[in-house]
Amino acid sequence: MIVREPETSQTEMKVSVTSVSESIARLVRYHRLAIWLVQGSIFALSGAVAFWLRFEGDIPQVNRIHLLWGLLVWVASKSVIFRLCGLDRGWWRFVSIHDVVRIWVGNAAGCVVAFAVIRWFGPPGFPRSIYILDFVVCFLATAGVRIMIRLVREAWGQQRPSAAAIRTLIY
User: Fold this and answer.
1) DSSP H helical ranges for 85-166
2) Which secondary structure element, helix H or strand E, spans residue 25, and what is its range?
3) What's the CA gap between 12 and 17, in Å, rounded?
4) Contact, 85 vs 102, CB < 8 A?
5) What per-residue confidence (pLDDT) applies to 13?
6) What pLDDT score was predicted for residue 90?
7) Whole-prediction pTM
8) Which of 31, 32, 39, 95 is 20 to 30 Å from 63 by CA-CA measure?
9) What is the largest CA-CA distance in the chain?
């Protein structure tokens, strides 16, 4: 007994190709929003990690108002600075050393602005070591995410050349 697989019709193939292309178009349309969400999350998490590291995992009740102030100011100031530095656009899979330098400058500028706002308007007694810890953690996280995306894309995204591929030497 021979069982044949049902053949897919041309219209079914066109529908699936159309749905894939529409999905890609949607992803491209919301790309910047996704970048803003990822960066905002990194800014908030780096501030929380800075407090966690400073107080060795147990943030005192007295310093929780500082944590709240810091998170609000860091997310706002770094979001604006990253926008001004152009770090909220582009495809992260193409990150280079030039981009890492821009990330460092953006983080440094964001931390300086946040420092000024917290010192002038924030509650007194804000721990000074938090500023440095936040800068280091935020820089490593923002640069690390982009580098990780590039490494993953290069490691798993490349197609292996087939045996029939013709090698060409360009000199």
Assistant:
1) 97-121, 129-157
2) helix 10-29
3) 9
4) yes
5) 46
6) 67
7) 0.71
8) 39
9) 84
